[in-house]
Input
Amino acid sequence: MKIHIETPRLLLRRLQDGDQDALFDFIQHPAVQAAVPEMQADGTGIIEYVTKHQAWKTIDPGGCFDLAIHHKKDNILIGIVSIVMKAGATASIGYALNQRYWRKGLATEAAAFLTEYCFNELGATSVEAETEAANEPSWRVMQRVGFEPRPDTPDELVVYAVSRASWEARK
Output
């Protein structure tokens, strides 16, 4: 399955051989380690992670499909985004960036284009994202993209969602 989502500053693409060094750099921050537990700060799991995600051919219900966030100007992988197709045509997205690229609007840009992809290419009727309640920068991204908080979530998490109708109305 070829996925190529281009934004003004980013390219969201399949993971490739050669991404391992950038992933090693990216995984050094504890917040990123928590978001991607398959990879450890010492590099354990990075090769297996890339190989596993290269092998996936479709975005199957229940499966997680990760893409590289490639910064076009700097020509480097700066993070990952993920898509999980859930029951009822709901897509769940996630994102994690290298700390050097935080607070530049890049997570918002990636999340917005990934949300559009979920609606237009995957046929999702709603898209959601979740994070720890303490991770304010992440839920601020969700708000900027147009997601609304869901009230039925555990105290330690925040879950935001947007329906296709709400997304289309924002355009």
Remarks:
- The CA atoms of residues 28 and 41 lie 5 Å apart.
- The chain has a mean pLDDT of 84.
